[in-house]
Amino acid sequence: MFQGASSLSLDAKGRLSVPTRHRDALAQQAQGQLTLTKHPDGCLMVFPRPAWEQFRERIAKLPMQAHWWKRIFLGNAMDVEMDGTGRLLVAPELRQAAGLSKEAVLLGMGEYFELWDKATYDAKEAQAMQAEMPDVFKDFSF
Questions:
Q1: What residues have CB less than 8 Å from 139, skipping those under 6 apart?
Q2: Looking at residue 56, what is its pLDDT?
Q3: pLDDT digits 0-9 by tens, 7-47
Q4: Are 89 and 110 a contacting pair, CB within 8 Å?
Q5: What is the rounded CA–CA span in Å between residue 32 and residue 41?
Q6: Which of 73, 109, 124, 130 is 20 to 30 Å apart from 44, CA to CA?
Q7: How far, in Å, CA of 97 to CA of 43, rounded?
Q8: CA dist., res. 9 & res. 49, Å (int)
Q9: Given pLDDT bands bounded at 50, 70 and 90, which one contains residue 142?
């Protein structure tokens, strides 16, 4: 299970270094093979390949009325591999889709990661913190 936030920088070629705390797990779980795709909230989803394969199967089975969502998730998926120094290349199309420039945030979301442009994430997080907590949390004790 991946969790926690990491501030990252993309280099001029669109590469980012996977945080050390996640590299070993990704090497063991997926031999460094990852899949990136669009997320409807404006970030990228970064899956270890085995988790991607399970997600892909679930999406592929959706009915015809979900066809556009199949296009968004499956049609934009790109396989990448961590290099020897733990970097991965984010394709220009995906960087553009998520508005990624130099500063980014990688969030562990359990089975996968979300990759956000830092400014976008900060703004959306601030907006969420100002909003009322969703009903599912009303009876949740902290």
A1: none
A2: 97
A3: 999 999 999 999 999 999 999 999 999 999 999 999 999 99
A4: no
A5: 26
A6: 130
A7: 8
A8: 23
A9: confident
Encode the chain in three state secondary structure. CEEEEEEEECCCCCEEECCHHHHHHHHHHHCCEEEEEECCCCCEEEEEHHHHHHHHHHHHCCCHHHHHHHHHHHHCCEEEECCCCCEEECCHHHHHHCCCCCEEEEEEEECCEEEEEHHHHHHHHHHHHHCCCCHHHCCCCC
The one-letter code for the residue type at 48 is P
**Buried b / exposed e across 36-48, counting CB within 10 Å, b at 16+?**
bbbbeeebbbbbb
Please name the fold of domain 2-132: Chemotaxis protein chec (3.40.1550)
How many Cβ atoms sit within 10 Å of the Cβ of residue 69?
12
What is the identity of the amino acid at 142?
F
Q: Which residue has the tokens 């070993």?
A: 24
CA distances from 127 to 39, 62, 121, 132 (A): 18, 31, 10, 10
